[in-house]
Design brief:
461 residues, alpha+beta, Cytochrome p450, five-stranded mixed β-sheet, three-stranded mixed β-sheet, 13 strands, globular, binds protoporphyrin IX containing FE
């Protein structure tokens, strides 16, 4: 069996241009790596890191042999912000949190959250309607910013109820700065120790302190919520607020109760994982629909058959084309473009023996756009997903939420949210991309729209 050093990859000075490319022009660099070296690539500096592109190996790492993989060093920089929350934790800490937090994201809870999603979407539609009425010409908006605020409001309301208020802007702005610092560290593989007073470390520490202050202040309002609950007997009346529910559930958990620090980490994790992902999904889907008006028309016809401005949770069972549009959008422009794991014991990947403690990257971006697994991958073709389950047809080739035990806990939440928002926007408005604007998808922790997404919107008559 061939060894890790036999894996093809950049040599000599090319290693450095490859690392630079991964930071400055990530998507194209990975395309070059895949074209030049194949389905498994070794980058030797600063540690040996492997890039895996074949579905069989991806399936093995994430699902079949997931016990042999942990999150590993590539996730260390994220801990600076997320502590030991669900995305970064391992072992018993992860198992316990996954069970407790998972209870707050079951289908019954999502149905409740959908009411928040509908309310916040209606507010956005109303504000856009006012803008459209005031102007004769189509209104110009940065759709990326609009979607970011909307999904941030939704996750903020879901996690904190109405208690976040004005502070939500502080958190939203800081999260952007923090993720930029973190992704640089993931890509270079160089993780500056947090005790060194570098400018980035100082910024991260300031962000953490202000976030912690906000969360702890809200936790202290726990008693207020108890007060608010008094006299409200039915489930329907109770506020839907994950923070409060975690604090409440904790009371019956005994030794397994989450510590206050752990709750802070979980809330921070849900906040970060729960808004930029869905926001980018919506931004890129609206972009794709402007590029493919015939698909937008088909989507509008499906949604327009419902006689209401915003669809309900139940309606979403009857929207196959909407489902397919979202799935195809996540294929062509995956909201999470890259993930990684670290081997615990030796494993075989792509015909090579991979030693323990090796970081292995997998790229949704590259594998979802590989013509061997998706014909004409450059085309936005929702029809390819109509009545088809890509998770069954070619396991490992489609993994927007990853696969296996670490699969996204917010998958249903985000699918319901994005379908409610997208259907309402397409039902009520027509979108045109600003002339000559070329969006730039930039893979960070999520697939960001560098330079935003300027569009004109027009109210449908
Ligand atoms: C389109 C939207 C979303 C996408 C594409 C997405 C994608 C992902 C992916 C790829 C992972 C796995 C990361 C890894 O292990 O490498 C993940 C994990 C996670 N996501 Fe999401 N996510 C989305 C929305 C959400 C939302 C809305 C929430 C919360 C409300 C959320 C919470 C989480 C959490 C807590 C984890 C860690 C799960 C664990 O390891 O047990 N995500 N997500």
């Amino acid at each position: 069996m061939k060894k890790i050093d036999d894996i093809p990859g950049p040599q000599g000075l090319r290693i450095f241009s490859c690392i630079k490319g991964l930071i400055t022009d990530h998507w194209n660099e990975q395309i070059r790596m895949h074209d030049r070296y194949g389905d498994i690539v070794l980058v030797k500096y600063p540690q040996k890191r492997i890039f895996i592109y074949h579905p069989n190996d991806i399936y093995k790492i994430l699902k079949d042999n997931s016990k042999n993989y942990r999150k590993g060093v590539a996730f260390e920089p994220l801990k600076l912000l997320l502590g030991n929350g669900l995305v970064t934790s391992e072992g018993d800490t992860w198992k316990n949190s996954r069970r407790i937090v998972g209870n707050e994201f079951n289908s019954k809870a999502i149905e409740k959250f959908s009411k928040l999603m509908i309310n916040d979407t209606k507010k956005l539609i109303q504000s856009w309607e006012v803008l459209c009425k005031e102007k004769i010409n189509p209104v110009e908006l940065d759709i990326n910013k609009e979607m970011m605020s909307l999904t941030f409001n939704i996750i903020g309301d879901s996690l904190f109820g109405s208690l976040l208020g004005e502070k939500s802007h502080i958190i939203q702005d800081s999260l952007g700065t923090a993720t930029d610092i973190i992704i640089k560290r993931v890509m270079t593989g160089i993780n500056t120790p947090s005790i060194l007073p570098t400018p980035d470390n100082l910024k991260l520490s300031k962000i953490n302190n202000s976030f912690e202050k906000i969360v702890y202040e809200i936790m202290e309002k726990d008693n207020l919520i108890e007060e608010e609950l008094k006299g409200k007997e039915s489930e329907q009346e109770t506020p839907i607020n994950v923070l409060f529910k975690l604090l409440k559930a904790n009371k019956s958990e005994g030794k397994k109760a989450l510590s206050i620090q752990q709750i802070r980490d979980e809330i921070m994790t849900l906040m970060l994982a729960g808004h930029e992902t869905t926001s980018n999904l919506l931004t890129w889907t609206l972009y794709l629909l402007t590029k493919y008006p015939e698909k937008e028309k088909k989507l509008f016809e499906e949604i327009n058959s419902f006689q209401k401005p915003v669809l309900s949770y139940e309606d979403l069972n009857k929207t196959p084309y909407l489902d397919a549009v979202i799935m195809e959008s996540m294929r062509i422009l995956p909201p999470v473009p890259l993930t990684s794991r670290e081997t615990i014991e030796e494993d075989q990947l792509g015909g090579y023996l991979i030693p323990p403690k090796t970081t292995v990257f997998m790229s949704q971006m590259i594998t979802h756009n590989d013509p061997r697994f998706f014909k004409t991958p450059d085309l936005f073709l929702p029809e390819r997903f109509l009545n088809k389950d890509p998770y069954k047809e070619n396991p490992g080739s489609y993994f927007p939420f990853v696969l296996g035990p670490r699969r996204c806990i917010g998958e249903e939440f985000s699918l319901v949210e994005s379908k409610i928002i997208l259907s309402a926007l397409v039902k009520n408005f027509i979108f045109f991309l600003k002339e000559k604007f070329k969006p730039k998808p930039v893979p960070s922790i999520t697939l960001q729209a560098k330079n935003g997404m300027p569009m004109y919107i027009k109210r449908r008559d």
